[in-house]
Design goal:
With 124 residues, the protein is α/β, with parallel strands linked by helices. It has 6 helices and 5 strands; from the N terminus they run αβαβαβαβαβα. The protein has one domain: Rhodanese-like domain (Oxidized Rhodanese, domain 1), CATH 3.40.250.10. The chain has a 5-stranded parallel sheet with strand order 1-5-4-2-3.
Length: 124
């Protein structure tokens, strides 16, 4: 059963999604397969990341990403793909990073759930 999100949460997510670029799970898989250079960032909670994540992803949880992004990824022009469980928290994080001057931030719609459902490889 899909998680039911509160209306106010969905309102701010939809507002953020109106400003951020999104891609599909298959797009990220194709980028990885092609060896494309980009930063893949998991914005889920630390425990979620520890239980499994996309190959090569780094962890910068949504609660600390604004604080830690400049140290982890100092180049504001670098391509950064964010993902979470389903694409909501990553959209919020992408919106915040854009406000900080990051120009090439993308939120992966479908998130970890979409990646796993597609049967793509994971790491833990």
């Amino acid at each position: 059963m899909a998680k039911q999100h509160s209306p106010r949460f969905l309102e701010i997510v939809n507002d953020a999604k109106s400003r951020v670029a999104e891609c599909e799970v298959a797009d990220v898989k194709a980028r990885l397969d092609a060896g494309e250079a980009f930063h893949l960032v998991d914005v889920r909670e630390e425990s979620e990341f520890a239980n499994g994540h996309l190959p090569g992803a780094i962890h910068l949880g949504k609660g600390v990403i604004e604080r830690d992004i400049e140290k982890a990824i100092p180049d504001v022009d670098a391509t950064v793909v964010l993902y979470c469980g389903g694409g909501f928290r990553s959209a919020l994080a992408a919106d915040a990073l854009q406000k900080m001057g990051y120009a090439n931030v993308i939120s992966m719609d479908g998130g970890w759930s979409g990646w796993k459902n597609a049967g793509y490889p994971t790491e833990s």
